């Protein structure tokens, strides 16, 4: 028990030391306009709030949420490998990964179109 406590304290000390070192050595510029302004959903927060919301940005945000949640759906697939039929496991996981890859391709194409503008 004492060993675990000592290792935890050493780890905590090292983490705090690295964070303190990084914050003191980092370049802090207070006058940087871009870092001081908040990023709000892809539009300028200092402008008018009456502009229509971009549907393309909304779709990209929804796809990001889907890819953010996908890990909770991928983890149980590996754990039920021994319990289920191999054909149903392979079919389900392949179909799920194909859907994810199609979404990733769509997001990549949308991002490429945004950067080309």
Q: Overview of this structure, please?
A:
The protein is mostly helical and 117 residues long. It has helices at residues 2-25, 33-36, 55-79, 86-116. α3 (55-79) packs antiparallel against α4. The protein starts with a helix and ends with a helix.
Task: Briefly summarize what is shown.
The protein is mainly α.
Helix/strand-derived class?
mainly alpha
Largest sheet: none
The fraction of residues assigned to DSSP E strands is under 5%
Termini separation: 60 Å
Low-confidence stretches: none
Shape: flat
Helix content: over 70%
Mean pLDDT across all amino acids: 77
H/I helix tally: 4
Secondary-structure element series = HHHH
Quaternary state of the chains: single chain
Number of strands: 0
Number of domains: 1
Radius of gyration based on Cα positions: 23 Å
Which helices and strands appear, and what pairs or packs with what?
Layout: H1 2-25, H2 33-36, H3 55-79, H4 86-116
Helix pairs in contact: 3-4
Pfam families: Oxidored_q4
Family: Belongs to the complex I subunit 3 family.
GO molecular function, one term: NADH dehydrogenase (ubiquinone) activity
